[in-house]
Write a structure and sequence with these properties.
Length: about 230
């Protein structure tokens, strides 16, 4: 889906916002409607190195996911990019075609002594996206918008799979969780104009409708780890 909004007359712009808002409401999922965070993982990663670790998540448009994790205490950086596919150094246009196998993803580099891998997963399932939407997220459609956790280590795999089983057993969501858990083969940073997109375009209609509410939900549901 083309998420950009060119310069158009004010009336047409207003109509565009209205149509996007309608689509977002019509396709919003369970996660966006949760009034509180899902339960924390019973099984979490064991901290072996206090320096830093890396996690990679895919949950629809990477603009919103990146913005959410950038507001989490203990996160050193969040980078929008592509993972899970077969094409090296893909372009946004290639990934958007759905032919590369890549998903829009975010690489999170964090300090495990400040925020655990399990806590990042809790944020991912609570406010970053809706894990019950198959090959889509909100108004965006295609495998490039699938829900996925790309693990770096067997420990991350163990925690991710255990957490999905936990949330499923608790019937946290009204529909089945469709999140893919797969080994990370490679992560390719997206083009520069995608980085910090919410920060640089806070009033862009897509951002206002689909991504600003995620950051607001993080602040409300995870006040103890939220940072401005």
């Amino acid at each position: 889906m083309n998420r950009s909004f060119p310069n158009v007359p004010a009336v047409l712009a207003a109509l565009t916002v209205g149509l996007v808002l309608f689509a977002a409401k019509a396709t919003s999922g369970a996660s966006s409607q949760l009034s509180e965070a899902v339960a924390a993982p019973v099984v979490d990663a064991i901290v072996t190195s206090p320096a830093e670790d890396t996690a990679v998540f895919a949950g629809g448009c990477f603009w919103g996911d990146e913005a959410v994790f950038e507001h989490v205490k203990g996160v050193k950086s969040a980078v929008s990019g592509y993972a899970g596919g077969k094409t090296d150094n893909p372009s946004y246009e290639q990934v958007s075609s759905g032919d590369t196998g890549h998903a829009e993803s975010v690489q999170v580099i964090y300090d495990p002594s400040q925020v655990s891998y399990g806590k990042l997963l809790q944020v991912f399932f609570s406010v970053a996206h809706d894990p019950t939407q198959l090959n889509r997220q909100g108004p965006d459609r295609g495998t490039q918008y699938r829900s996925a956790i790309f693990y770096n280590t067997p420990e991350q795999q163990r925690v991710a799979e255990s957490y999905i089983k936990q949330l499923t057993a608790a019937k946290t969501f009204s529909r089945p969780i469709v999140t893919q858990v797969a080994k990370l083969q490679a992560f390719f940073p997206a083009e520069a104009y995608h980085q910090d997109y919410l920060v640089n375009h806070p009033n862009q209609p897509y951002i206002v409708i689909n991504d600003q509410p995620k950051v607001a939900a993080l602040k409300k549901q995870f006040a103890d780890i939220y940072r401005n």
